[in-house]
# Entry
Amino acid sequence: MPLGQLAGLKPAKQLREYFGEAILEAATNNSKIVVLDGDLGNSTGASTVRKALPDRFYNIGIAESNMISISAGLAACGFIPFATSLSSFLLCNAFEQIRISVAIANLNVKLVGSHSGMTTNREGPSSMSIEDFALSLGLPTFTVLVPSDPVTMHRAVQASVEINGPVYIRSSREPMPYIYSEDDCHFQVGKANVVHEGNDVTIIACGLMVPVTLDAAVILEQEGIRARVLDMHTLRPLDQDAILTAARETAAIVTAEEHMITGGMGSAVSQVVAKNCPVPMRFIGIQDRYPRSGSLEELMKSMDMLPADVAAAARDLVLIKRNQARI
# Structure
């Protein structure tokens, strides 16, 4: 089933295509922007800059560590480099260079990882990016942005240009439906968006899992359960106010992410909840094992990440709340 179908969301192209549009627009408007590519520009969307502005596009080849070192040098000279590749190649292969040359030095480098999560699907776990939240969140100077639709991808690229420091943007191979319209998207770094109102339970999601949770909210609404859905498009800085408001007002939180359940968004949210306002929680994500090859729907089913699974987790928390109220 297409993402967001139950919620009636408008279908769209693959998110990487919208990154291509967004980076070309940004580079056209800002002469300091340069794009570095790991020989995957046609796959990431970055080839739009190669075609329109070839003097500001550099194909470094299959050498991600070298690409990061060059990006750091360009940033030190006043440019705004966007280093692009598949997330698994970019974060995993070049992590030492990212840590030392970009994060510790706090340089103005933007990393854009495509084909994130399990969206390489049939190509197997070696190319899947299911640890990238843990890796990027382990770098204290990085802003981490996770767009959930075409509009937020454009906003994330625009926002990253304005941030003076390292940024990681997570892109996707999967077609992502429109959650927002161009004239109705309040994208602010560090501020989650409420995309569905409710006071029975809160579902906090990011990226691909936002349309999945909106479908889950439709399932729950048919049962008389009103779920609040938060699009946590920024993982650092994390919107602690939105998390704590949800904890106080709904007293139950489900997190949903296309990432290992350890070290990702759910771990970050649970730290905030445990420290300030403990409430029952459930965690939807990749269950601490490597997925096998298959279609995205098959992989999500194997990890209990479909809308029905999110709805079941939320339903469980609502039952806990009701039982506690009877005591």
The mean pLDDT is 95. Residues 193-326 form a domain with the Rossmann fold fold (CATH 3.40.50.920). The chain has two domains: 15-170, 193-326. The two ends are 41 Å apart (CA to CA).
